[in-house]
## 1
Amino acid sequence: MTRPPFDPRRRRLLCAAAWSPVALTLGCGGSFEEDEHPDAQRLQQVLDDASSRSGAAFALAVHDRKGRWAGAAGLADRARGERLTTAHYQPAYSITKLVAAATVLRLVDRGVLQLDAPLGQYLLDDWLDEMPGGRGTTLRMLLNHTSAIPDYTATDAFREYLRGDRSLSGAVAFLRLVRGQPLQGAQGRQVYYSDSNYALLGLVIEAVTGAPHGQALRREVLDPLGLPQAAYPWPQQPAFAFARTYSTYLSPDPARPVDASEVTARLDAVEAPAGGLWATPATFVALLRGILWRRLLNEATRRQMQEWKPLVVPGVIEIPEFYGLGLMRLDQELHGETAFGHPGSGIAYSFLAHLPRREATFFLTINTGDEPEQGAYTELFRAVRSQVLQVLTA
């Protein structure tokens, strides 16, 4: 295996045209209480059809002008024959960055942190001098991925960790995998998507709050939004039902996905601020709506989340895409429909988006994945997402 089952370049991003921040005037209400939705049958049929022809499991939650609804199809655990329900926790993957960013921004609103302050103001450890960018990298650069710090998930040592190597432990150890490497470009100008940024933010959160970042994220975001059905970081002994993840990339027979839940757990253990959140589908919808409307953040801060910077990945992304402060433009993913939120990918894929013109928010996930950007499950997920979009925009 020359590449890990998780390639950070797989994270799909945003749109080619710059735009003004969307006015968030859709009302309040981040809580999700399932009720009747006129499109419930159509949405459930989309999930059922995709699951029956592929063997993958899907979960979906929507909240729009018509109502709120959640549904699921397929097996959460293939070996046990356990059917997936809307109560099963699903992996956020990189959607977690939205929660980590909101935590940082809550601390900024209270004056505990400053967006344009350098890392050296909050992290005093000597190892920071070894990092590309050193102590001068600002929190804003970390939040919007303009720090140009290389991504530790792209290193050979991280690939070995995913294969079972236990010699590395803790965020600092993984961050040190990129020490001595040059910056990927000039800082503060364009986006170089890197999980190293959010690992550093996790350390900053711990430094200023005096608490593990998991406690801080719950105290600052999940609890104020009334979202108990979320787990962060992943517990050693989960006390809730969760969807197992499956991969064709790790299987000797691409037609028969293998259980890759252990690899997912290893990813979550090290990528906590960048990708360690699990929650029910309805919780993800309530999360995005809560961050945008429930006065979790002040209005000026919410608008700063939509100050977009262009993303460039040579040879991967050929047209400019955009990233804000923990928030992504998703227009390109949704066929030009104005949208923002965050996608996530690891062993499989998740997607959280808000369509402001439609006053619609949805979360979609599949529990089976394959070779980045090339496999049948990747294409199936995109097709199901397009069908969901058609229903919501009809």
## 2
Amino acid sequence: MTLFASVLVLALGKPIAAFQQGPREGAPAPSFNASIFAGGSISSKELRGKPAVLFFFCSCDECHQVAKEWARLQGTGQSTKTLISFSGTKQEADLFTKETSLNPGQARFMDDSDNSLNDRYDAMPCPAAFVIGSDGTLLYSSKQTAGVNETRASVLTAQVVDAIVGKHKPGSVALAPTHEPITSTDLVPVIKPGMNYSSGVVEYFSDPIDTKKDVSFSHKFTFTNQGEKPLTVDRLLTSCGCETTQLRYHGKVMKRAVVNPGEQVEVMLKVSLKPGSTGYKTVRVSLCRDEWNALGIIVATIYLGKPK
């Protein structure tokens, strides 16, 4: 389901592509021509003849876990060509390779500092994985099939392997949810600069953050119950281990809040950032009314200024 198809223009004067549905399994994989951190470049045309795996990683724990599991599979004979679009610098990519034990002879890190590859595949939030067939067809998209299981390394990599060996048929699995189902849109955010809202999902785009000076990002989101009945926020569900959240109601930190009509509740979001990191980071927070159903979703994209 397409959440947004609009383009948000920030105070920076740059158009930012909104969160939307990416390429579909069974369709031609988006073409690309990207620089390799180790030198040279690679294009999607060069992949013809054999299947290839395209991962989107950053330095977060979830991406580390998926990469470690893929490295383990590489060690057991999984030799499929692996391309990695990494949100960060060459030095950060080298450290990521070392920390995750990826085989540098099999995994090629691509420079996507202009976000063009991410935009083509609509890959955020990471980790994300795509399998491109020998004829250029998209055999697998974790955005379509894995959904909320994208951060589960064993599930994600198992689905990738199934696609490589032909066990996963494109389009054979119904669209997996990329977030918890929204059962009410009465909890409406207070819109501020850098925000966009539609159908229960609020997007936020930060100003660039210099990670030489700041190693965390914090922001407050305020929601108003515009319905006629009380709404209960039972918990805040995050998408990444780098996130910490607080639920505040009437100025008090709460584990659970019953928000009466016309009243407001605040979500305090803090994201830990790796010192000196660059690129961008996208995280998600769900305001859940129970174990699964949501009253609203926050999708925050944090832009990391390039340290000099």
## 3
Amino acid sequence: MAARKHAARPTAMPMPMSTRVRTPSHPVLRPAILAAALSLCSCAAPLVSRQVPFHEADFAWAGRTGSGSVSGQVFVTMTDHTMKIGSNVTLVLLPVNAYTTESIQRKYLGGENLADGDPRYDKYVHAAQADDQGYFAFHQIPPGDYFVGTNVVWSYWIWNTDGEGVMYKITITRRTRIFTRVSVHNGQTIRVTDWVQCKSQLL
């Protein structure tokens, strides 16, 4: 499990005098926490082959020069309705066709560990990096329909107790894939305000 343990400081949480806090040499996860972690982990997913063949003719229109733009802010919405901003993440802009739709359906929505695409595919993929606040922009995009996608990695911590009753802190790191579909027109800027948020994965 890709979780890191940190020694807890007694001042971080008020506890009874009888409770000891230190980093245990042999921590034991409570069964409920261990079961939940194992059920969420997808890091061991097997590599799966693509089913849709690559046809370069389907991408030709996306290789032209245009004057459209796509901009917005990267974020994921948590269960408590707060937002996690995607600071400095890399986004991709993919022309919509059967090949890229398979990537969205199987990798983003399905969570499959999909094999890398055809090497010729790379030259038709636009990339942009978000700033510290998650804002991004693509420029000089030819007209057409595109997928915009990225990953947002975030973390939180929980307290756990080992077999000796010693409390310690565990940091949990997760990844959430998000995407949306946009229609680009020359001379116009498309603003991304909503994302399709896929199920998060434990890292």
## 4
Amino acid sequence: MAAKSNPQDLSKSATERISRAKIDQLYSTVRLAIKWAGILGAAYIAKEAIIAFAGKSSSLLVQMAFSLFANLNFTVSITLTGCAKLWALRERRLRRRKVEQMQDRIRELETRIDPRRSSSGLLRDGKTNPADTERS
């Protein structure tokens, strides 16, 4: 049995790789769950439609099925939009955190190439400096 390593014993890059792998695994799991939820939902709706129409033919039932599908379609699209928004906000937060972590190293490398280099004026997390957005 291998001894568990203490997260503090890992290098910074190893910790970042583990964190990135965990996030990637979470996204893969969520994508798979959404895919199978859609497949199972479509199968359930198809089963209910077949049961409802078995031996019957009614324009009212057809209209109700189309109405249900339209409502379901709207609900799914709103849900997916919300999920995409949450994913985008999470990605932006991760990107800003990574930019802030790398800021000192980037400055060091840039000044090593050109010691007279001036700063772009961006904040440490990569956002535009508020003074740059003010119009004179």
